[in-house]
Amino acid sequence: ATACGGTTKNDVKDEGGSSASAGKADPNAELKKGLTVGFLPKQVNNPYFTSADKGGEAALKELGSSYKEVGPSSATDTSSQVSYVNTLTQQQVDAMAVSAQDPGALCTALKQAMKNGIKVVTYDSDTKADCRNAFVSQASAEDLGRTEVQLLAEQIGYKGEIAILSAAQTATNQNIWIDYMKEELKDPKYKDIKLVKVAYGNDDAQQSFQQTQGLLQEYPKLKGIISPTTVGIKAAAQYLSGSKYKGKVKLTGLGTPNDMRKYVKNGTVEAFELWDPAKLGELAARTSVALVSGQITGKEGETFKAGDMGTYTIGKDGVISLGKPTVFDKKNIDQFNF
Amino acid sequence: MTHRSDTGPAPVLALKDISKSFGAVRALRDVSLELFPGEVHALAGENGAGKSTLIKTLAGVHRPDAGQVLLDGEPTVFHGPADARDAGIAVIYQEPTLFPDLSIAENIFMGRQPRRALGRIDHKATHAATAALMQRLGVELDPDRPARGLSIADQQIVEIAKALSFDARVLIMDEPTAALTGSEVARLFGVVRTLREQGAAVLFISHRLEEIFQICQRVTTLRDGAWISSEPLDGMTEDDLVRRMVGRDLDELYPKQEVQAGEVAMSVRRLTREGVFTDVSFEVRRGEIVGLAGLVGAGRTEVARAVFGVDRWDAGEVEVDGKALTNGAPSTAMAAGLALVPEDRRAQGLVMDMSIERNIGLTGLRTTVKAGLMDRGAERSRSLDWAVKLQVKYARIADTVSTLSGGNQQKVVLAKWLATAPKVLIVDEPTRGIDVGTKAEVHRLLSQLAADGVAVLMISSDLPEILGMADRVLVMHEGRLTAEIPRSEATEESVMAAATGRAAA
Amino acid sequence: MTVTAPNPAPAAEIPKSSGTRLVDRVFKMRELAILVVFLVMIAITQAGNSEFLSEQGIKDLLLNATILVLVATGQSLVVITRNVDLSVGSTLGISAFAAGTYLQGGGNSVVAIALAVLLGVGFGLLNGLLVSLGQVPALVVTLGTLYIIRGIDSIWVGSRQITAADLPGGFVDFGSGGISAVPYLALIALAVLVATAYYLKHFGSGRELYALGSNPEAARLAGIPVRKRILAAYTFCGGLAGLAGAMYLARFGNVDSGTGNGYELTVVSAVVVGGVVFTGGSGSVYGAALGALLLTSINSVLPALGVSSVWVLAINGILLILAIAVDRVVALRVASALKKRNARHG
Amino acid sequence: MADSPLARAVRWDTVVGALLIVVLLLSFGFVGGFGNALNLSFLIGNTLPIALIALPMTLLVVSGEIDLSVASTAGLSGAVMGALWNQGMTIETIIPLCLLLGAVCGLINGLLVTRLGLPSLAVTIGTLAAYRGIAQIILGSDAVTDFPTQYLDFAAGRIGDTFIPYALLPFLVLLAIAVVVLHATPFGRSLFAIGASEEAARFAGIRVKRQKLILFTVTGLMAALTGVFWALHYASARYDNATGLELAVIAAVLLGGIDFDGGKGTLGGAIAGVFLLGALQNVMSLVNVSAQSQIVVTGVLLVVSVLGPRVGRQISVARAGRRAAASTPTS
Ligand SMILES: Nc1ncnc2c1ncn2[C@@H]1O[C@H](COP(=O)(O)OP(=O)(O)OP(=O)(O)O)[C@@H](O)[C@H]1O
Ligand SMILES: Nc1ncnc2c1ncn2[C@@H]1O[C@H](COP(=O)(O)OP(=O)(O)OP(=O)(O)O)[C@@H](O)[C@H]1O
Ligand SMILES: [Mg+2]
Ligand SMILES: [Mg+2]
């Protein structure tokens, strides 16, 4: 406590920072069968999470374990996500794969789950590191941020004003990516590119729509937009394709091939990228099983074999990275269906 | 039962052995009634006798539990007010039922507006027809004015206009005159006579017995939901009628006790509310009953409202017991010992969805308290005391007041305010809709209160009441006090002269 | 006999109708106030950003407002009858998806729109039946059906979504196309709006909606078929929500199980800002439409002025309060001025 | 009492209470994982924010008003808490400041409603956006999580191994206060009168505006308290904390039989409604009912909650009618 008896931020030492891991890993341990792994996405009924979880389901089936999915119907209903963590704990699943709506809010519940012997893997969206055993990351944040800038820069010929249309202002992933985008933009080869604004569409079609309109009105000379969110890019593409800016203002970012097919074909969008969400889910499932089986504990440097996907190494803070994202354009987009 | 035996015209509308209960309350028991064309029929009875229930049964609002409604001799079932309307029955209900957001014209013609091609409303014709009706009733009401904010009297006028606009065969009026003063009543009666001559059947309810004798030919009396008699009024006296209604002889209607007026209890000085009343000054002394008379819309109610604090005044001051009241603060007025029995009991006097007990208790929230909490025992006995004292007719004290008859609701309002033991009591139309028996009771009570040293300001449109009860009569005309007349000089002529502004010169 | 105030001022002779015309004007002014706020806002934005009122800009403004105008029009009818329909967002969502599913299978655009409207009518009927026959508080019932329809929608839709690629090109082009700066969708909304307003003013059943909202008990006594009218209002509201669903599909080309989520609050705001009173009986659909235009335009104005989206929400809320407060203060001022002018005495 | 036992039995708040007990008993018996202390403590802990706001909301609704901005006020107080904590202020100063801020938010609502005479629905839709927006401006994208553990433990922990969260105890005290205020004080009595007929209440000398102002202020205060609790309970202060909570509160309060026309309802019913919804959601998740179906169930419950009493009333009226008819010949 401080001199005047109160508790301030400085009094609270952050014990976090390292992933919660205990015991010793046995890389050669047999993969257990008959486990139950619960998937808890940010939101059920969200196409992105549905394909991710489908990937997890398929992998678990192959591994002889069972899959279940629970989750809130709203992506901002944190309290209900917490309840679902509790539900899974009560149902005594062996492991849970969670995409956290909030890095902090789930912690108490997740720690409670781990105390009850449940392994916790986060995927897509992480919590604080000490609240889970491992985090399966869709791609390294750095890769994502930098490649998106590279994609757009190429399309606009390394010259002109650009803007970013993000999700919610609190969206953890997007914020990290945007930081890396700004980092990448510092490179001298982008000296003629100016990032004029970061707008937030709150992952809402209509708001993203109007934010796009606003960007174009405010910056008539705008050359390109990066939207690192599937909802945002879709809304922006729909607006551009029905406006006079179609084809003149370039758009890239993260989108699913199914969402974006039309806009790629009609010339609104040249190229965008994304990882395969099914693969992300699969890796989360495989990581969970490996954790329960004792092949890994979540410490940096441990490795495990994730079926056909190959071998993965656990990085700093228990982060496992899926790999580089795929870039979609006119040529290859018809080969994908998600 | 003795019905008319001669072979006159057949009744247009008749009730035969009608019974109606509300839960355990039996409002009507085997009541019969016949309405003949070209005749005005009075319906008399104490408060809660079942008059309004009878009317609502005729109008298709209530379905009788037993008995028949006969239209032109044929048994009929009215499934709703619309059926009765289509059968040529126009009804003025006891409580005005207007649409506050709509214009007076729309209120009158709702559902039956004159049409143009394609079923579109002819707004011009509606306006013109309304203006014509207003002229017929001799009132100046703008047809395009919204009904919100109309005084009770004006609302009543609109209701009357509405009923007249039907050109109905049967006109039923439940206390249409309760809020009106002499001149409007005279106008109304003129119109009713014309209708009668044209062959309409009229059913008329009033607690002002002289009105019954003025306009009606026959009278049916009810007591406690039961039919007592139906007979011609020719040859009857008021006392006869009262005996049929009450079942006994009545004491004096205006039992005024002579009291020596004490010191000033309330003084109002140069009170002004812009556009409503101007420069109103008067005093009320302890033990005194001061009458406040005037035509409808003269501003009496507005003065009372401002004095009590529900409206703000723009200039002037009010003192109660030598203490100045705060502008626009009823709670301080109450604390100073002022009570106001408002004019509109349903909107202002009562919380209709609350029980009788709680309604009376509402003015005692500060007194029936123990250690900061409600003292329910004290609250109940206070409410019961006063409900009994004023002879409110109810089944259980915890029933909601909305189930009471109009007159009994009025008594609850009185009870609610008398229970505060006020030093100054303002009563606005205190006996509106109250039967003769109870009226006498209320007068006795006011008189007693005055004798006990309470200062009473009585606003009333019932001139005999003012003349019978007041020690002093103040008269308002168009927002100004025009006269102050001592009891000895107060006559119908002198008051009316001041009220119409004729005395001003 | 003592005369206390011997000289009453002769009652000023004011011709009766002058007050009326003033009253009329005040009522028109209620909408005028919002219109002025709107125009001022647009003017300021235009001054700050000349691109704002370009052809594209105007088109965007109108397009943004269209869907809300439609739903708000329907909602006003219900609110005028002293009820409310909170389920419009859910209805919009589910009918948009229904129309989308049908179009995805290669359906005809007109039939798709009819389908959406019909579905909306169906849900409107359900609400109307519950409220009018059950005679239960509309707020609770429609909050209930909000959840029920939303739930059914998400169970049915699951994680599916309909994207512009699944829709016929003509349909999507119709959604963003128009005659120079005036989008087709806005024309449809305008037609619906004008027709509704005309109906409310000039037809008996329209006036009866006001009557029964103003005093339900009196309406019953006046022989107005209360239940039938309430049912009709809800059905109409549902139908417009359905139509709005089809338009949403055309406009955004993109629907999933979350479409229309939380829309009821926006609709209610538009109606309230537009001066339709929640206790029933007063207000006009033009007001509601202006409210809708004002609300959606705020969302375009702020980004166009370069206000950071962080500030948008707060400014939005404050503007909303300002709009209703200004409206109220103006109304009070005028009313008291009128009262003084109109006073019979003094 | 005045009400017959039958009439009282069909009063909806009693029904909700009974329903809650039935749901609890059935769940104890048949739903695995429900009865254990940990689950119950979670259930209570997650329901507390709704219950906390439901207390003043019930009073407000009884008096005929509504406050839709409660969730935003909670969010704002959480955001301010996070921002001040980041500034290095002591938590012991921050919390009272947050509560004060909440009271000010409520006061603003109240002033707009009582002084300008604006409808509370409209005002609080506006402040719903405004307060949330200010929260966003203040805290932006931050998520503050490092509050002192003793506070976090208090907000999220439970007493030993029992099912009782620490936070339940202060809630019960607040509940008791609210019950007494609404049902046993002159203030509460006057709220019913105001809700049923504001004009009649004014004519009875009740200081309508002042009472409402107090209520709005207290509602803001309680919303802020909820915001503080939320941030600590979930160890996360973000500007979008508690988004949408107002709808949950209103649904629960409605379910508890509070009439939004004002003048009717009991706190017991409201709180029973809150916990009924909470328990049902918990049970349904445990038995793997999907989130979508849970929404449908909530909706159906709401519709039934208003249709139910009406049907009950009709039955009791019909019975009374029959009884009266039966007694007619005797008198
Ligand atoms: N809706 C109702 N529910 C229960 N009781 C009712 C209802 N309406 C009337 N009553 C009861 O029926 C009886 C007759 O009431 P009614 O209104 O017909 O009296 P009334 O003769 O019109 O009296 P008043 O002269 O006071 O208007 C009263 O005891 C009243 O309490
Ligand atoms: N609540 C109100 N709002 C607006 N105007 C009102 C209101 N009440 C009355 N008025 C108007 O104010 C004027 C004065 O009415 P007030 O009721 O004071 O007259 P009064 O002398 O008491 O007559 P009475 O009580 O017989 O109607 C009337 O023209 C009336 O229309
Ligand atoms: Mg009567
Ligand atoms: Mg009066």
Automatic annotation (TrEMBL), chain B:
Keywords: ATP-binding, Cell membrane, Membrane, Nucleotide-binding, Repeat, Sugar transport, Translocase, Transport. Pfam families: ABC_tran. Its main location: membrane. It is a peripheral membrane protein. One of its GO terms (molecular function) is ATP hydrolysis activity. GO terms for cellular component: plasma membrane. Residues 13-249, 259-503 form the ABC transporter domain. InterPro entries: AAA+_ATPase, ABC_carbohydrate_import_ATPase, ABC_transporter-like_ATP-bd, ABC_transporter-like_CS, P-loop_NTPase. SMART domains: AAA (SM00382). Gene3D superfamilies: P-loop containing nucleotide triphosphate hydrolases (3.40.50.300). This is Sugar ABC transporter ATP-binding protein. It comes from Streptomyces himalayensis subsp. aureolus.
TrEMBL record, chain C:
Keywords: Cell inner membrane, Cell membrane, Membrane, Transmembrane, Transmembrane helix, Transport. It is found in: Cell membrane. It is a multi-pass membrane protein. GO terms for molecular function: transmembrane transporter activity. The keyword Lipid metabolism does not apply. It comes from the Bacteria. The complex is composed of two ATP-binding proteins (LsrA), two transmembrane proteins (LsrC and LsrD) and a solute-binding protein (LsrB). This is Autoinducer 2 import system permease protein LsrC. The lineage of its organism: Bacteria, Bacillati, Actinomycetota, Actinomycetes, Kitasatosporales.
UniProtKB/TrEMBL annotation, chain D:
InterPro entries: ABC_transp_permease. Its main location: membrane. It is a multi-pass membrane protein. One of its GO terms (cellular component) is plasma membrane. Pfam families: BPD_transp_2 (PF02653). Keywords: Cell inner membrane, Cell membrane, Membrane, Transmembrane, Transmembrane helix, Transport. GO terms for molecular function: transmembrane transporter activity. It is found in: Cell membrane. Coiled coil: none annotated. The chain crosses the membrane at residues 12-34, 40-61, 94-114, 121-143, 163-182, 213-236, 267-287. PANTHER family: ABC TRANSPORTER PERMEASE PROTEIN YPHD-RELATED-RELATED, AUTOINDUCER 2 IMPORT SYSTEM PERMEASE PROTEIN LSRD. This is Autoinducer 2 import system permease protein LsrD. It comes from Streptomyces himalayensis subsp. aureolus.
